[in-house]
Design goal:
Blueprint: H1 2-5, E1 9-10, E2 14-15, E3 26-32, H2 36-53, E4 57-64, H3 72-85, E5 91-95, E6 99-101, E7 115-116, E8 120-121, E9 137-141, H4 142-147, H5 161-171, E10 185-188, H6 200-205, H7 207-210, E11 221-228, E12 233-239, H8 242-257
Parallel strand pairs: 3-4, 3-5, 4-12, 8-10
Antiparallel strand pairs: 1-2, 2-4, 5-9, 6-10, 7-9, 11-12
Bound molecules: uridine-5'-diphosphate and manganese (II) ion.
Length: 260
Amino acid sequence: MLARKHPEIRKGGWYVPSNFTKLHKVAIIVPYRDRKKHLSIFLYYMHMFLMKQRMEYGIFIIEQAGTRPFNRGMLMNVGFLESQKMGTWECFIFHDVDLLPLDQRNLYQCAKQPRHLSASIDSMAYKLPYGHIFGGATAMTLEQFTKANGFSNRYWGWGGEDDDMYRRLWMMGYRVKRYDMSIARYTMLSHSEAEPNPKRRPILENATKVFKEEGLSTLHYEVIELTWHQLYTHIIAKLDEKTTVDIRSNVANMTVGGKM
Ligand code: UDP
Ligand code: MN
């Protein structure tokens, strides 16, 4: 229905505004598995929201195949690399499927510093739970993301990968910015709370030591399906756990040998 009303949304969920715009061309990367209801609401809402901002954008839904614990970070890395094969995106917005921005002043663009967009969420009483939070929805340029070596691939299950990313960016000299809390408002579609991954803390402890050796540079995956739907590009990827195993042995070597 939305596509019929808005023929300017091209197949794959790409939108190109009719008049000249100086805004960044943005890839919206969404990690996904088994949230069908959220996905249809998200697509409808986001196209309406983003079209009003009049920038060129594409929506990429990156679905994890199989039943292993969800790996949000790895899916972001896959989305970054795969979207690049389909266009020259200047800005990447990594976005949970259940978050809907509530204020049009929340510009979906990148800046000199990475931006944490979803600072003020209704389910968190519109407050930041802690200062360095970097989950939900974030915006990074190609340079910011690649300098951080992307997300870590080591977090299977809920939690850690977002804090890890914050640390990567910090180590590269970036200082995360946010819009004002009155602008960065979101509603989160309801879902049951996931069980946190109990291993996330020890992995996070050596995040700053290993990030250059692990992340985008060590990603292993296979695209098993790629479909250009009317409102989005759908990529189903099989994530290779080899990535995690490789780095575990690296980490052990580093600690023993004191390489870093
Ligand atoms: N996600 C998903 N399926 C899952 C788990 C996570 O699609 O089984 C994606 C989805 O985009 C979701 C995001 O990962 O919004 C973050 O997970 P979740 O919403 O469970 O975390 P929280 O709300 O606690 O940040
Ligand atoms: Mn959520």
